[in-house]
Specification:
The termini are far apart. This protein has eight helices and seven strands, in the order H-H-H-H-E-H-E-H-E-H-E-H-E-E-E. The protein has a seven-stranded mixed sheet with strand order 3-2-1-4-5-7-6, covered by helices on one side. The protein is α/β, with parallel strands linked by helices. It is globular, with a radius of gyration of 17 Å.
């Protein structure tokens, strides 16, 4: 899919830099292009995401989601869990970039689940599993062999800390929280914070917060 044909020159240049910077294969670039097209089409008829401008989707959804792979080596990971994935961020971009990793998307919204099912089938993402129950049920009913659980603009960290309870199968995993530059942990969250890694995407400054028991 030559998505550059629907972009203006500036956006096409940003797209080309994204493909080059992430060292995407032709197949991966095509999958991202297909994902982009589906996201824009669905966002016109249902509230999937407030970010729909082409350059913003590339920067603040695609590039932002892939930041995890810039700070940790995902080439030896087997499973990543994305809690409250919404329209698929960061899970779908990570699944495209790292096809050897099983990505579990946790989402309860029916309209978003329908969109995710469409994307998974359209992009032929055999490494993506969709879990359609809530976070607390997920903790009680599953035991994926995941070292990392991700949350980007979904549940608050205090709720996510449930994964560290003694009975949780994920108590030894690391929680990665996409946060604004200004975010500060609460008294309850602070003891779990292992590291904060700042980064910039476009004109926005964020940080990845790593929490562990």
């Amino acid at each position: 899919m030559d998505i550059r044909t629907i972009f203006d020159t500036k956006t096409a240049d940003i797209w080309d830099r994204f493909v080059a910077d992430e060292q995407l294969t032709v197949k991966q670039a095509d999958q991202f292009a297909h994902y982009f097209k589906l996201l824009i089409e669905w966002s016109q008829k249902t509230n999937l995401t407030t970010i729909t401008a082409p350059t913003a989707v590339i920067r603040y959804h695609f590039q932002d989601s892939l930041q995890l792979g810039h700070v940790i080596d995902l080439h030896n990971e087997q499973t990543i869990i994305d809690v409250g994935t919404g329209a698929g961020f960061p899970g779908i971009p990570l699944a495209i970039k790292y096809p050897h990793v099983e990505v579990v998307l946790v989402e309860v919204s029916h309209k978003k689940v329908a969109f995710l099912e469409l994307v998974i089938n359209a992009l032929k993402l055999e490494n993506v599993d969709l879990y359609t129950y809530d976070w607390r049920t997920f903790l009680r009913k599953t035991d994926y062999p995941a070292n990392y659980i991700c949350a980007r603009a979904s549940l608050q960290p205090e709720e996510l800390l449930r994964m560290f309870k003694p009975a949780s199968p994920y108590k030894d995993a690391t929680l990665v929280y996409w946060a604004s530059k200004e975010w500060q942990p609460s008294t309850k969250e602070a003891p779990f914070v292992q590291e904060e890694i700042p980064y910039s995407v476009g004109n926005r400054k964020h940080k990845l917060v790593f929490l562990k028991k």
